[in-house]
Amino acid sequence: MASEGVLLGMGNPLLDISCVVDEAFLEKYGLTLNNAILAEDKHLPIYKELAGRPDVEYIAGGATQNTIRIAQWMLREPKATSYIGCVGKDEFGDRMYKLASEGGVNIQYDVDEELPTGTCGVLVVKGERSLVANLSAAKKYKIDHLKKPENWVCVERAKFIYSSGFFLAVSPESMMTVARHAAETGKYYMINLAAPFICQFKDLMELFPYVDFIFGNESEARTFAQVQGWETEDTKIIAVKLAALPKASGTHKRVAVITQGTDPTIVSVDGQVTEIPITVIPKNKLVDTNAAGDAFVGGFLSQLVLGKDIVECVRAGNYASSIIIQRSGCTFPLKPCFQSE
User: CA nearest 12: which of 51, 67, 49, 50?
Assistant: First the structure.
């Protein structure tokens, strides 16, 4: 059984505006599939255009929030997880709070009264997705909110703390504060590379010594390797190098986890590499790959906080991901069918 608040997530809460589009729509806005970007001025009309479509869906999103919601769903213990981020004082913020908290997550939103709640355009073409995030109020998150006693207690209670790399674009100070806290108290601090452009952030490398688990997919891992000048695209070598980067604390050996779509998941710790196969979902059952990576991490963390071994964590991650890609957006059945071994 998971203890209350054992897992904390900090990130950018975004209301996903999801719609099936054609390739011409992507070309119109200069977008590509299987990528995630921050919206520029030229992308802003996307949200209104999507909202006007009859098949549009609104789903509580944002990478870290997706992961925490999935972990909570898998754990089935009320308030085993907590989540911190910033929304606007508006209908979208209220809607997202309801969507995110109804599964049992302890939601601690900061509320900004100036900017609207952040949104993410989720453009789906033949099951593949392109994400365009307009952070809006999410980018207003400040460390002052984190330090309030009613919010800091979430940090103190947690044994595992997770953020997507996207949060580096908003509050690297908050991430560094909790990362240092984790190192000082023997907790686990975990991040996700999130998207290729995040790998170029200077703040990422300043944070890295405090990272105990690093997640990413193959394209993110290869971009990270390129930025570091490692001159290899071999994901197994990259995983070993990620795990071997210097650490601030020797309490935990860093674990690197790289997903590769339908290819085996790569895990590296202490110079060793393990390849763990996945169960491939037939293409005719594929609905939407949005949040597949977030779901993998959520499933993984749901077993990690219970003390399960890495193979079992990956098995849970693959299960959660397989459920998500057969549905629209980060949605899931009332109860999971996963059985721990």
Answer: 67
Q: How many residues are given for the chain? A: 341
Q: Which two tokens stand for residue 60?
A: 């509580």
Q: Which two tokens stand for residue 161?
A: 């703390």
Is 262 part of any domain? Answer: yes
Q: Is residue 341 part of a domain?
A: no
pLDDT range class, residue 195, cuts 50, 70, 90: very high
CA 305 to mean position of chain CA atoms: 17
Positions marked catalytic: 294
Q: Which domain holds residue 190?
A: 7-15+61-117+136-325
Q: Which CATH number is 187's domain given?
A: 3.40.1190.20
pLDDT of 329 above 80: no
- Cα separation, 241 vs 53, whole angstroms: 46
Name the residue among 333, 288, 306, 243 with its Cα closest to residue 126.
288
Task: Kindly write down the DSSP assignment for every residue of 191-234, as one continuous string.
Answer: EE--SGGGGG-HHHHHHGGG-SEEEEEHHHHHHHHHHHT-----
Alpha carbon distances (Å) from 155 to 83, 108, 172: 10, 12, 16
Mean pLDDT of 326-335: 84
Query: Is 34 contained in some domain?
Result: no
Nearest to 192 by CA among 213, 173, 222, 174: 213
- Model pTM? 0.92
Output the six-digit token pair for 87: 């929304």
Percentage of the chain surpassing pLDDT 70? 100
What single DSSP character describes residue 252?
A: S
**Helix, strand, coil percentages for the chain (3-state, nearest 5):** 40, 25, 35
